[in-house]
Each structure stands twice: as structure tokens, then as C-alpha cells.
Write a structure and sequence with these properties.
The structure holds two protein chains of two kinds. Chain A is α+β, with helices and mostly antiparallel strands. Among the domains of chain A are: about 10-130, PH-domain like (Roll), CATH 2.30.29.30; about 135-165, no CATH class; about 170-485, ABC transporter transmembrane region fold, CATH 1.20.1560. Chain A is built from 24 helices and 21 strands. In chain A, strands 15-18-19-12-20-21 form a six-stranded mixed β-sheet, with helices on both faces. In chain A, strands 1-2-3-4 form a four-stranded antiparallel β-sheet. In chain A, strands 11-10-13-14 form a four-stranded antiparallel β-sheet, with helices on one face. In chain A, helix 6 packs antiparallel against helix 7 and helix 7 runs parallel beside helix 14. Chain B contains two helices and eleven strands. The radius of gyration of chain B is 19 Å and the shape is elongated. In chain B, strands 1-2-3-4-5 form a five-stranded antiparallel β-sheet, with helices on one face. A three-stranded antiparallel β-sheet of chain B has the order 6-7-8. A three-stranded antiparallel β-sheet of chain B has the order 9-10-11, with no helix packed on it. Chain B is mainly beta. Classes of the chains: A alpha+beta, B mainly beta. At the A-B interface, strand 6, strand 7 and helix 11 of A face helix 1, strand 7 and strand 8 of B.
Amino acid sequence: MQSTSLSSSDLPPSWVDQVKSQLTDGEEVLSWLETDLDARLHFSSGLVIITDRRLLSKPSIDASWQDWSYRQGLILTRRDHAGIGSLELSDANSLLARWRYTLINDISASRLIERFMYQLGYQLTGELPPLSNQVLCPKCHSVIDSPLPPGQEECSLCNREINTPPSTWTLFRLWRFARPYRWRLLGGFLLTLGSTAATLVPPYMTMPLMDNVLIPYQNGKPIDNDLVTFYLSGLFGAAILAWALGWARTYVLALVSERIGADLRTATYEHLLKLSQEYFGGKRTGDLMARIGSETDRINIFISLHLLDFATDMLMIIMTAAILVSINPWLALVTLLPLPIIAWLIHVVRDRLRTGFEKVDRIWAEVTNVLADTIPGMRVVKAFAQEKREASRFRATNQHNLEVNDRVNRIWSLFTPTVTLLTEIGLLVVWIFGIWQVSEDAISVGVLTAFLAYISRFYLRLDSMSRIVSFTQKAAAGTKRIFEILDQTSSVPEPANPVHLPTVTGRIELRGVGFRYGTRSVTRGISVTIEPGEMVGLVGHSGSGKSTLVNLICRFYDVTEGAILIDGVDIRSLPVAEYRKHVGLVLQEPFLFFGTIAENIAYGKPDATRGEIVAAARAAHAHEFILRLPHGYDSLAGERGQSLSGGERQRISIARALLIDPRILILDEATSSVDTTTEKEIQKALDNLVRGRTTIAIAHRLSTLRDANRLIVLDRGSIVEVGNHDELMAQAGHYFNLYQAQARNVDTEDDLHRQDITLKMAEGRI
Amino acid sequence: MTEPDFQLSRNAFGKLIFIGPDGCPHEGVVPVRAFPIAAPDQGIAIIDPQGYELAWIDSLDDLSDELRTLIQSELSSRDFMPEIKRIIGVSSFATPCNWQVETDRGLTTFILKGEENIRRLAPPSLLITESHGIHFLIRDRFGLDHHSRKILDRFL
């Protein structure tokens, strides 16, 4: 192991000079920790340094430097509570110093302690104790438990800290989904161009109709029938052309946008499926459903209708402006005068509306959430007669929804009439200027009529264009929320250079495994090796970390410290789906999907033959009861398999696990939710399942773990005892207490009560 | 004021020693607030290092001054919930984003992972959980200055 000495340039830049002034000649900085809290827990930056001679520290900005040389009995420890860590230096008699930091620095703290104890040992004994076969991450220098796979340059710890906010130009990110359709989009755009041009012909025709036909007639000339026919057929032709082109472009673009929407929805859902269990733990179902369902639909409508309208309007305005200028530049100038004012108005309202609509979306998700929370728990609501409270909760959310909408509508309702008013004023200006010009003989009546015909359309478009503001904002808000899902990286990342394990023997090794959920550290320093084919039972109170350990082994979460190895390979370097194929899971509450029993059994292996399905069902002792069902294997298992009993559902889930033939089997309280008779049947099914596989079983009823080769007793996230039933009983420790408590109180599932007894027994023995 | 049936003292290592009615000492006990937000001065449990409850204090006011100061000093060195006084700026209105805030414990920055990490407590209080799990409290969101309120409003 190399003795990594840090050059002072590795220190945080703000500290380099100060530290240099403190160091004596040849003194070498080995490790450092930047603390961000002072003794009163105020934010203040401090530094703790370990050199080859001493521990040096400046606890806060205005404190002075302190140091402690290496001597016998010094010890450096760290603890954490509620998001703050404390690092304590003490000797045999008392506490010497205490530093505090937020857990962002926890990795550096553990590195610092390790370095300190290592150096202390060296100073006292004069020899360098070998560091265990630990490897340092090349990026953050933290200790990792197995070498990184080639090609991967950072460990999972430094990976996790990257957290860049997404850009706000979210709508443009939709291009990723529009790209495959770019040629069709271009076609649609050209059609738009053509159809818009066609709609601009009729007002142009009014000019010669007025000047060459109607005005001469009023002045006593007869009507030229041929000319009239020519102009009118021109009008009709333009209308027909505009109709045909308009139909084609709407169809093409609607087709494309529908596909973009579908792609977006699928991509979001696929991405969602890849995210880790951790993500789903922090999200509410209603919110996610609203995002995938209605948000994508809103984006879809935006692209197919509003964006299209907007493009048409823009083209219309540009073309109209060009035509107006070509007819009479001065009149055109006056006509277009209100345009910048309206544009400014739109800009002002835009910001307010966007935040408003974001709020509306969020509150809408909130409404869905209340429903999604309550409907599955309807039995509880009814049992405790809390319908009124739930109704009032819903009403309150709805009320909030109303308030937010009211606020948005207040701005919104003012906006549209203002645009209309400006339109009318604009028309008035054109009338005034036009009449004056006609009286001066600068323009003909026909030109004025054409202008009025154009700008009444023109402002009409401007009015509808102003509407695009709200639709764009709504779509942008929706896009943002969709991309929030798409931007989530799984906290269980796929390895950059995956290692493939075609066959697995099922040897599981846990090396110093720790897991932290938020600020709460759930498991700490768990090291154990499970041999192929061995059955291990996990025992402990609720909250002792059994399920967490199983979740870590299944890789629903990634460890925060240490590593889990299967056949000597870190599970983080295996492709997630490939790894899970080797793991079979039977849960306490088996989840049956909507579909036939056969489909449910074959869930993990959709291409299984009927023979395989039946064989798996037989082995799981499910065959007979399935045959008793009206449609046998083709019977429908409802949303949660309501028509089946708990034991029956459990046996189906055992058959499911049997069918994929995993090397590693995890039974998470597989028999806890059924009565003892059913348990015996399930136990028979389980015996078939367990045979020859590495099995990890969690069970409340210790009697079901009698067959386990070894029992691992967990307490508050650490292993306290390991051994088989007889050994552990002989030790008269934790397991003994648990077992005694259960033997005395066979049917008490109440954990608190049991803990209480254990505690009393423990005290009684003292 | 009722005298509690236990004694509490601090040793040279800065650890609290608890001696209960049975006279048996426990080292390294910690006081824990049962309702840190709703009722910080009521319902405080003394917990041993294994997590078992040793004693329950209904209200800090019931204690002698000496005992109360001891428990309060231990609580204040453990309970870390900075109260946001002013929001200086956010890097983006889309999450995750960096927040720069002024708290009762000085200036700091944190990362907000998602809007759902802003929890509504009993109005007008809000609780913001940052990416590392530290909670920031906003006691009265209507009492903040205009700039802070405007920023906050974008996330609610």
C-alpha cells in the first residue's frame, strides 16, 4: 500500500496559506477534513489536519490553531446524529476536542480517522502496520472495498455527489423526441407555409374588386362581368387551396405529434422502471401517474394544436406585414404600431402565468395524491369511521386548488380583453390615418379596404397568438416535470464496464456493509460470508436491519459503505437485470399482477412452457388448488389476487420463484401472514424451493428457521451473534432471549411487547 | 415541580451519566425530543446507547434549573435544524437546485432535490429537507422578506 501523502496544494484553496504558515520544516500533511460547523452548531468553516507529526486544527474562522502530538492513549472517533457528525479526540482520561460537520464530509472524516490511527500506530510502535487490502478511489481517495472494474474512474461515493440542476430551456429538450420525425415535420411546415399563403390571397383580391369594379360602378360605369368572374373565381380557388393544404398539414402534424407524445410516455415509463427502489420510496403514486398520463398528453396537444397554430400565426404576421409594406409603407407602419405594445404585454404576463401554471400542476398532482393515498386504504378509513375527515382533507386540497386557479385566472382574464382592446384601438388608428390619406388622395379606397381586411385578420391572429403564451407555459411546465423523471439517474447505476457471470455458485460475501437512509444509519459494518447452498436465517427485532440487508443483497439499494460480492465479484459491477435473474424473492405480501395464474407464475420467465409452469406449481404445492379453480391455470388473479387466500397467493409466488430457478433465494417473512396450518403447507413448498440454493430467510417465528444452517442475529443494524440454533441457545444471549420470549408468548406478534419482555429479562439477569 | 427519580451528570469525556432509581449507572445516555417540531420543550426521553428508554420527562419546565440546563445544553449540541431567515438565491427554479440561504446559524448553501422535499407543517411553517437529510425550518413563510417569499413561492 502506498503511503499517500498529500501535497499542500490538495488542500482547499482558502486554507493553503494558513496551513503552510503552521507547518514546521519537512512536516507532511497526510489527510484533512474541512468542518463546516462550529461548537454551537453555527455554519463556520474549520479545518482538521493530520500530519506525520501531529493533529492540527483550527475549529472555526476566528479560533486559533491547536495541535496534539501523537501519544499513547489518544483515540479519534466519529458519531453521527440527525445529519451532523461529530469527530472526537480523547485520551484515557478525558475528551480533548470535538469537531462537528454536516454529513457531506462524512467520507473525509472516516478517511481522516483511519489515517490518524494508522499514523498513531506507526509513531508508537515504529513500524507501519499493513493496511488491509484496501484500495483507494482514484478520484475521491476514499477507501473502497474491491478494486474498481476497469474503465470506471470513480467510486459510487463520488458518483452520488454530482447534482447539477437541469436547464430551464426545457421545451427545446423535446427535440430529442421530435428528431426521428424531422422530415415529416419539415413537410408539415412547408404545407403550413403554403396554406397560410393561400389564406392571404382573398384580402388582396378585395383591392382590385373595390378599385376596378365597385368604385367605377358608383361613378357611373357598368360592371365588367368578365373581370368580376375572374376575381371571384380567384377568391374561390384560393379558398379551396387553403382548405386542401390546411387539411394536409393538420393531418401530417397531428400524426407526428401523437407519435412524439407516445414516445415520450413510453420513454418516461421505461426510465421509471429503471430507477431504484429508493426513488419510489420518496415519491407518491398519484403524482407519478399524473406526470406520465396527463403531462405527456398536454405536451402532445401543445405540439399538435397550439404550436401549429402559433407557427401559422407567425407566418401570417410576417407575410401580412410584407404585403402591407409592399402596398403602402406608411399605412403599414401605422397598422403595425400596436404590435410591439402587445408583444411587451405578452412578455410581462408570461412570467406570472408560468409560475401560476406550475402551481396549478402541482396542486393538481396533490389532488390526485389524496385520492391515491385514500382509495387503497379504504378499509382502514371505514374501520375507523374517518370518512368525514378524508372528505374534508380532499375538500381542503380542492380548496387550495381553487385558490391557486383563481389567482392564475385573475391575471389571465385581464390579459385577453386587453389584447382585444388594443386590437380595436389599432383598427381605429388605421381608420383615422386611412380616411385622412384617402381625403388627401394618397391612397385609393380599395387599398384602405384591403388594409382593413388584412389587419382585422392580423389582430385576430395576434389575439390567438397571445393565447400561446399560456399553452407554452403549461407545456413547458409539463415538460419540466417529465424531464424531472428522465433526468433522475438511478441510485443503483448500471456499471460502465459490466462483468458477466453466466453461472453463479451462490457464494455471497458481505464486506463491512453499511447503509444510510437519509441521515439515519440503518446498518453498520456487517461482514459475513454465505457459502453456496447454505441456508441462513436472519433474526432480530423489527427495525434491526433484516429487510434492509435483504434489499441490499437484491440491490434494490446500493450500499453506502463496504461491498457485497457474489462469487467474489462486486454486485455493483454486474448488470442489474442480469444479477437479479440469479436472485429469487418471496415476499410477505405476494403481489399478483392482473392476468391469469399461468401468466403470474411465468412472470420472471415469460417464455416458460406450460409443462414448466405446471411443474413449478406442483413443486410449490399450488397445482391442486389451481385445478380446483373454475378455469384452472387460466383463471384470472385480480388486481391483488383478491379471489385467492393468503396461503394460495404465497404458493403462487413460490412457484414464480421456482420457475426462474435462481441460485440465490430470499424469503422475506414468507410465512408470516398466514396461520400455522397454512404455514405448514407453505413450508412444504418452501422445502422444495430451498433445496440446493443459497437461501437467506427472514422470519418472525423462530421455529420456521430451525432448518437453517446458521442464524445471524441482528440488533440495531449490526450482527450480534452467529451460529445454529443449539449454539445460540447455549450462548444464552440475544437469540436466547428472543426465543424464550416467543416460546412464552407464541401468538404474540406484537414486537413492542416482546422487546419489553426481553428488556425486563435482560435487567433481571443483571 | 416534581423532583425526578433519576440523576444526570456529565463526565470528563463529555458523556452524560444517568443513574436511575435502581442505582445502576448508564454511560453515554442522550436526551431525545419526541416532538422536535411540534413541541420541542415537551416530551423528552432519556435514551441509553442501545436505544432503550430510561426516563421520560413530560416537560422541561418540571425540572430543576441545574438539570434543565444540562439537558438543554446536550439538546442544543445535538439538535440541528437551522431556521431559514432569508433566501439569498437559488441556482434554478427547476430541481435539483442549489439554495443560498441565511439561517440563524449563519450563511450556507444546500441542494434541494425535489419540490416534495419541502414539507408543509402546520401553517405558516415549512420544513425543507436537503439532499443530505439536514432539515431547514422556515417558521413563518409569510414573515420572510419579499425577495425570499417570491423565490419560495416558485416551489410551492
